[in-house]
Amino acid sequence: MDTSPSDTGWRQAHLGHWLALALQRFDARVLQLMARNDRVPLALSNLAARGSLTASHIHITRHLALQGSRLTELAQRAGVSKQAMGKLVDQCAAWGLVQRQDDPQDARARRVLFTPTGLAWLQAFEEAVTQAEAELRAAVGSEVATVIAIGLEAYAA
User: Fold this and answer.
1) What is the pLDDT along the chain (157 residues), one digit of tens a residue?
2) In the chain, what's the furthest Cα-to-Cα distance?
C-alpha cells in the first residue's frame, strides 16, 4: 500500500509557510532600513549592511524590556533556548547594544539592559518598523493590511 501523499505542494502553500516568508521579508527590510539610518552607530550600520546582524538579533530588540530582563525571561519571550539567547546577548554586548548588570532584586541573578547605544538602536528599530509597515500597507492596501493585523493579533492571543 502506498502511504505517501500524492500531492506535496501543500507544504509550500499553507498559511504558516506564508507567515514565515512574510516575517523573513519584513525583518530583512527592517535591518536594511536600520543599516541606512544615520542615528545607528557606524559600526552597527556596517554589521547590518553586511548581514552580520540577523533576525535573531532582532529578538533582543523586540523582547528586551526597557528596565531590563533576566536572560531566562528574554529567552522565553523570544521563544528560544536560554543558551541561544545567551550567545545573542554576548554578541550584542560585544557590539555595545546591551550590558549585563547585577539584579538588585536577586544577588544571584543578572539583568540584561540596553546601553545608550542600544537605546539609539531601539529608536532606529522603531523607525524602521514604522517604515516597513507603511511599505506593507502600500503593497497590499490599507484595508488588507488592517485585516491582516487584526487577524494575526487575534490568532496570536
Assistant:
1) 556 666 678 888 888 989 999 999 999 899 889 888 888 877 777 877 787 787 778 878 889 999 999 999 999 998 899 999 999 999 999 989 999 999 888 888 899 999 999 998 899 899 999 999 999 999 999 999 999 999 999 998 8
2) 64
* Residue 42: HSE in the Cβ half-sphere, 13 Å Cα cutoff: 0
Q: Decide if 121 contacts 61 (C-beta within 8 A).
A: yes
What is the three-class DSSP state of 69? Answer: strand
- Which grid cell is 31? 535591518
Q: Which of 34, 80, 41 is nearest to 59 (CA)?
A: 80
Q: Distance between alpha carbon 57 and the CA centroid of its chain, in Å?
A: 6
Cβ–Cβ under 8 Å, residues 132 and 29:
yes
